[in-house]
Specification:
- InterPro entries: NAD(P)-bd_dom (IPR016040), NAD(P)-bd_dom_sf (IPR036291).
- It comes from Pannonibacter tanglangensis.
- The protein is an alpha/beta fold and about 325 residues long.
- The protein folds into 2 domains: about 200 residues, Rossmann fold; about 80 residues, Alpha-Beta Complex (UDP-galactose 4-epimerase, domain 1), CATH 3.90.25.10.
- Helix content is about 35%, strand content about 15%.
- The protein has a 7-stranded parallel β-sheet with strand order 3-2-1-4-5-6-11, sandwiched between helices. A two-stranded parallel ribbon has the order 7-10.
- The longest helix has 21 residues.
Length: about 325
């Protein structure tokens, strides 16, 4: 359950052009004073189009690979709370160029942000959006809580784990820090490079007659934990509004229930308007797949009372309807 407590002071959100932030900002606006000059930070080129931001938020641009730009941003805004969502968050894309861009954004950008906060906003609370991918091969041992060892297996996860360590080392005792290790989360507006929108987009294109009735998939036997993006936002806002009473720095944000990817696809196919054949595509098989991801969110639940409020069926139906709307809105359709 989401705390309805107010969040006092000025808020800065990085990654404002991303999927999660687009869901977060309208919800966040209900917890803050609109007169304080909150900041939604987009990439260096700014938003793709004129952003529709909630009252009290202004759009700013910043290259998170440019330490000087980050310093100037924090000096100008002087936030009381920072929600650091900006990241290169695709596991598949993290292998490109030897992982250099992933490390530059996820680690170097986070380190520069931490330094700028210490210089210009040393009382700010930082919520860092990390990932349960940091556990990696440790999932072979079974269900994991925050005390488990980590063994990340890809550049995305390794860069996030290194950023966690850096933040804990440099901010310890100096600036309030919350590390939210987020499970897979999805919803309307997520890129089709992620698994559920990928399935849904193929279904929508097949229904529209744009592709033959064959859906290409990777490893369907893997078991993963999924949340609706709005449940993740509930957790983030709950952690922030209770930051002064939290007993720990690191929290798993997950449903606690692994589900086979095959079962999720079957639920989506049951919603399809026509029969569809499923065919494995070797190009979609990801290296270092962990068979089962079993995450214990007990610390978050026990300390805050948060629990997921949306079902998997709600999540899947929403993702499919979103992809249908996108396909229907394409020129020539």
């Amino acid at each position: 359950m989401l705390s309805e407590a107010a969040l006092e002071g000025r808020v800065l959100v990085t990654g404002a052009g991303g999927f999660a932030a687009r869901h977060l900002l309208p919800r966040l606006a209900r917890h803050v004073d609109p007169e304080l000059g909150h900041a939604a930070v987009f990439g260096p080129s700014g938003p793709d189009s004129a952003p529709t931001l909630p009252q009290g938020f202004r759009a700013l641009s910043c290259d998170l690979t440019d330490a000087g730009a980050i310093d100037a941003l924090i000096a100008a805004v002087r936030p009381d709370h920072v929600i650091h969502l900006a990241a290169q968050s695709s596991v598949g894309a993290s292998f490109a160029d030897g992982g250099r861009r992933t490390w530059s954004v996820n680690f170097d950008g986070t380190a520069a942000l931490a330094g700028a906060l210490l210089r210009h906003a040393p009382a700010a609370t930082l919520l860092f959006a990390s990932t349960v991918e940091v556990y990696g091969l440790a999932f072979r041992a079974g269900r994991l809580d925050e005390t488990a060892a980590t063994a990340p297996q890809n550049p995305y996860a390794r860069s996030k784990r290194a950023a966690e360590d850096f933040l804990q080392d440099t901010l310890a005792g100096r600036l309030p820090l919350i590390i939210a290790r987020l499970t897979n989360h999805s919803g309307a507006g997520q890129s089709a490079q992620f698994v559920l929108p990928s399935f849904a987009r193929q279904i929508a294109r097949i229904e529209a007659g744009l592709e033959p009735p064959v859906l290409l998939v990777g490893n369907l036997d893997a078991e993963r934990d999924f949340l609706h993006v709005d449940d993740v936002i509930d957790a983030e806002l709950t952690l922030l509004t209770r930051s002064t009473s939290l007993a720990h720095q690191v929290y798993n944000v997950a449903s606690g229930t692994p589900v086979p990817i095959r079962a999720l696809l079957q639920r989506l196919l049951a919603l399809a308007a026509c029969p569809i054949e499923v065919r494995q595509d070797p190009a979609r098989l990801r290296p270092s797949d962990i068979p089962r991801v079993d995450i214990d969110p007990g610390r978050l639940i026990g300390e805050t009372g948060w629990r997921p409020g949306r079902s998997l069926d709600q999540l899947l139906a929403g993702v499919l309807e979103d992809q249908r709307r996108q396909i229907a809105g394409q020129p020539g359709h």
